[in-house]
Amino acid sequence: MAEFIRFDRITKFYGPLCVVENLDLGIDKGEFVSLLGPSGSGKTTLLMMLAGFEQPTSGNILLDGTAINDVPTHRRDMGVVFQSYALFPHMSVGENVAFPLQMRGMGRAEIEGRVKRALDMVQLSAFADRRPSQLSGGQQQRVALSRALVFEPRVVLMDEPLGALDKQLREQMQLDIRDLHRRLGLTIVFVTHDQSEALTMSDRVAVFNKGKIEQIGTPRQVYDEPATRFVAEFIGETNLVEGVVEAVEGEEATVRLPSGAQIVSAVSGSVSSGQPVFLSIRPERVDLSETRGDARNCLETQVTDSVYQGDHLRVQLQNAAHPLIAKLGRRSREFPPGTRVYAGFSAGDCRVIAP
Amino acid sequence: MPMKLARTAFAALTILFLVAPLIAILPLAFTSSVILTYPVPSWSLRWFEELFTADAWRRAIVNSLIIGTGTTLLATVLGTAASLGLRNRLLFFRGSMRTLFLLPMVVPAVVLGVGMQVLLAGFGLTNSYAGVIIAHTVVAVPFVVVSVTGALAGIDERVELAAQSLGAPPATVFRRVTLPLAMPGVLSGAVLAFATSLDEVVLTLFVAGPNQRTLARQMFSSIRENISPAIAAAAFLFIAATVVIGLIVVLSRSMLAKRR
Ligand SMILES: Nc1ncnc2c1ncn2[C@@H]1O[C@H](COP(=O)(O)OP(=O)(O)OP(=O)(O)O)[C@@H](O)[C@H]1O
Ligand SMILES: [Mg+2]
């Protein structure tokens, strides 16, 4: 697939504040890419530059191979969906959706047909004559969505479009948007700070931190193979344990923990022996048993607390040198505090991360 | 309970205090007597007749309408343009610029009047409609600026960004989105501008010639010359016009609000 959007060494300053720093990112046609990161990490800013609302301080944005830095917003042909919906309050739902078609000089009959189909797509055709203020938040967001899609834009940009909705509606909309993406073959850039949303919806996730992309990859890659400590901590929950590399063999490294235990772990990036590193161990990958099992890695620990959380059992453990958290399936047996247990996990279930 | 009673009484007294002058003058508009005093011997409409037939009064009413309309148009356009300009985040000294636009509200009218007369004389505009309209516009613009700025502040900037992204060039965004959304503010601004012009005496004294006597100016001078009840009739017209304008504003606002 050809690269469709390219951010080429983009830097953006607001006064003295560097909000996006020398950022490179390529997005393919038909791809769903999420920009995920904490508040203030520059996600919105990057999206606003793509939409043409803001200019990069330096660097180029290419669309289909041509630089669009000097193309004004209204000629970029991108549908934008905001968190605040940004519907035209003085127009009816139908007029809102017709607006981009009028801007393109379409005939009345064609506009009517398209508006109807676009509203059908989000199950709102019955509401065409209402004002946006007479709709619920979820309905308004669906109007915004159909308004951004009705003119078949080259790219659809969404800035936390589901942030204002309640959990149930949000999850429904996530599936709806993902479905539209597949059906219409849309190229979507989606900003969120909700990691589960990013993992659910995207083909690829770009994890932002302080104006830079820490890692970009499929949801599975960023979750299972975090490249940096930030990514490991930001996406999902993880146990981070300090250690020193003893040996590296191919994709695996042996790490000695302060307690003296040796762990064999998969490696992200390059490390060399003698280097102090972090180990990231996902709590749900840890198994507990009272006997030393045949797992590759095994830590001797003691249960300090155990909490039943409905869908899983959360067990806090204390090893000689560091705490550890394990999440066990709900069929697991109980581990009362004070029990001595072995925490086992395979080499592929943990990750060496250079600090 | 006594507290509530006291509060109601206080409110009633305040309102009475505010409208007492109106209550005093209004019945005199319908007197048949030739002097402006109570008691009213009998009721008649002769002073309204006088108002619309006597040359001086009729011309004053027409002048007020001409100058008021001119001022309303000019002040609304200028004030709206200024408010749009003041929205720009990149504008240097935005706060001070804003204050500058509101200055005519606090500068004593006499000072403005003297300055205006000197200035307009330089351009040969004293004793002309254009001169009076310009002078009135200076004091009317702040009202428009305050009103339109308020309306613009209520517009979510992202709605305009959305319009752009949907393919609307800047002029279209203004025409189809910004202006309709700011309309209630523009309308109230226009009404305030008209009312300001209608009411203005001091600047008019300085810059208007005998041919631009407005209603307010005419009332002012006839009070010194002969205190005829025509003044009361003119005052009645004033108040009626104000009430009508107020109603128009309230109605158009609620209509616009309903359209949202
Ligand atoms: N117009 C602006 N002028 C000055 N600083 C700005 C402007 N817009 C954003 N910033 C700053 O840029 C930084 C990044 O903002 P941005 O909105 O891109 O963050 P974000 O990743 O979208 O965060 P959030 O998840 O909270 O929306 C913030 O520190 C913000 O204060
Ligand atoms: Mg943001």
TrEMBL record, chain A:
Extract the SUPFAM superfamilies matched here: MOP-like, P-loop containing nucleoside triphosphate hydrolases
One GO MF term, please? ATP hydrolysis activity
InterPro entries in alphabetical order: AAA+_ATPase, ABC_SmlMolc_Importer, ABC_transporter-like_ATP-bd, ABC_transporter-like_CS, Mo/tungstate-bd_C_term_dom, P-loop_NTPase, PotA-like, PotA_ATP-bd
Keyword Metal-binding applies: no
One Pfam family, short name: ABC_tran
Q: Does the keyword Aminoacyl-tRNA synthetase apply?
A: no
For this UniProt record, give its keywords in alphabetical order, as a comma-separated list: ATP-binding, Cell membrane, Membrane, Nucleotide-binding, Translocase, Transport
Q: Which SMART domains match?
A: AAA
In short, the EC number is 7.6.2.11
Catalytic activity as recorded in UniProt:
ATP + H2O + polyamine-[polyamine-binding protein]Side 1 = ADP + phosphate + polyamineSide 2 + [polyamine-binding protein]Side 1
Which cellular component appears as one GO term in the record? ATP-binding cassette (ABC) transporter complex
Q: What class of enzyme is it?
A: translocase
- List the PROSITE patterns: ABC_TRANSPORTER_1, ABC_TRANSPORTER_2
Q: Which family does it belong to?
A: Belongs to the ABC transporter superfamily. Spermidine/putrescine importer (TC 3.A.1.11.1) family.
Subunit structure, as described in the record? The complex is composed of two ATP-binding proteins (PotA), two transmembrane proteins (PotB and PotC) and a solute-binding protein (PotD).
What is this protein's record name?
Spermidine/putrescine import ATP-binding protein PotA
Q: Which organism is it from?
A: Shinella granuli
UniProtKB/TrEMBL annotation, chain B:
Question: Where found, per UniProt?
Answer: Cell inner membrane; Cell membrane
The GO annotation for biological process reads: transmembrane transport
- Chief localization class? membrane
Origin superkingdom = Bacteria
User: Sorted alphabetically, which Gene3D superfamilies does this protein's record hold?
Assistant: MetI-like
Q: Could you list this entry's UniProt keywords, alphabetically sorted.
A: Cell inner membrane, Cell membrane, Membrane, Transmembrane, Transmembrane helix, Transport
Organism of origin is: Shinella granuli
Every copy of the ABC transmembrane type-1 domain together lies at: 61-249
> What family name appears in the similarity comment?
Belongs to the binding-protein-dependent transport system permease family.
What this protein is called in its record is Putative spermidine/putrescine transport system permease protein
Please list every transmembrane segment annotated in the UniProt record, as residue ranges: 61-87, 99-123, 129-155, 227-251
GO cellular component terms, alphabetically, are:
plasma membrane
Q: How does the entry describe its membrane topology? A: Multi-pass membrane protein
Q: Does the keyword Cytoplasm apply?
A: no
The answer, when asked if Signal is one of the entry's keywords, is no
